[in-house]
Structure formats: C-alpha cells, structure tokens
Amino acid sequence: MTDHVLIAPEDDRSKRRHAHWECVRKARAEGKLPTQGEWLEATRGPRPSLGERLRGLLPGKGSRT
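The structure assignment produced for this chain is given below.
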C-alpha cells in the first residue's frame, strides 16, 4: 500500500495532486481538508433525503408540482 493519496482541490481534477497520507490525516483533524461530501454540502447545501426526492417525482399529495 502506498503512503500517498490523490486529492482534487475544490473538485477541480485539473489541480489534482498527491499528498502524504499523514499530512491528509492531520489536515482533516484540523478541519482544513473537507471530504468531497463535506465540500459539496458546504457549497450547495444539504442534499434532500431520498424520500423528499421521490415525493418530488410523484404527482399528487406531497409533490412540489
């Protein structure tokens, strides 16, 4: 197993780079390196639940249309 990981800052794969696993672990612990899911939630807001998404697709009671 390698001691490096591949990261893509702000989900921009053109800026991807390698980082030492221990450096990534330290940055995560300090709150400086969010996961992709954490970054997406911070930039786009929380994702609706599966139930909310399904209710939005169905006509009738509970739909937003």
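Interim note for the steering committee: Strands lie at 4-7, 17-20. The chain has one domain: 4-57.
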